[in-house]
Amino acid sequence: MSKINSKPTWAINAETLMKKKGIQKLDLLDIFGVSTPAAVGHYFQGRREPSIQGLINLAQKLDVELSSLLGLQENTHLNIKEVNAQRLTEALQLLVRCVDITPEEVMIFFKVYEKINPENIIKSINILSESDDKNSIFNSIIKVQDFMSIELKKANK
C-alpha cells in the first residue's frame, strides 16, 4: 500500500526553488489562500492537498512551468519505468480534482486503486508499453493476467 501523505514531488521541487530565490512559506499564504505558515506546511508535508489553482499560482511565483514543478518529463515519450507508486498516486490525486466526480466516487476510486496496488498498475503498464503490434499486445495481456493471478494468490494467503 502506498503512503498517500508523504512529501509530494512538487513540494520537494518547490523547496529547492524557494531556497534559491529566498522565498519563505510565509510568502506563500496568498498563493494557497491560507492564513498561517503552518497551513502551507501541511501542503508541503503531504498532510493536505493543494488545489490545482494553488499549484498553478506557486509555479508562477517560482517562475517555472507547472509540469516542471510537478516533476513531469518534458518529452512526450514518458519512460514509465521512472514512474513509482508515489508519483502515480500524486498524478491520480491531481486528476480526480480535474473531473466532475463526487467525494464518494473519489473514495471508491482510491479504495479500488489501493486494492489493485499501484505497483501492480505500474508492472502492467510496463508490460503493455513493450507491445508494438497486435500479437505482442495479446501476449502482453496474457502476461498481465498471469502476474495478477499470482499477486491475487499471494494476497489471499
TrEMBL record:
The UniProt entry, under SUPFAM superfamilies, shows:
lambda repressor-like DNA-binding domains
Q: What is the lineage of its organism?
A: Bacteria, Pseudomonadati, Pseudomonadota, Gammaproteobacteria, Alteromonadales
The organism of origin for this protein: Shewanella surugensis
Which InterPro entries did the record assign?
Cro/C1-type_HTH, Lambda_DNA-bd_dom_sf
Transmembrane regions listed in the UniProt entry: none
| Protein's recorded name | Helix-turn-helix transcriptional regulator
Source species, domain of life: Bacteria
Q: Where is the HTH cro/C1-type domain?
A: 36-69
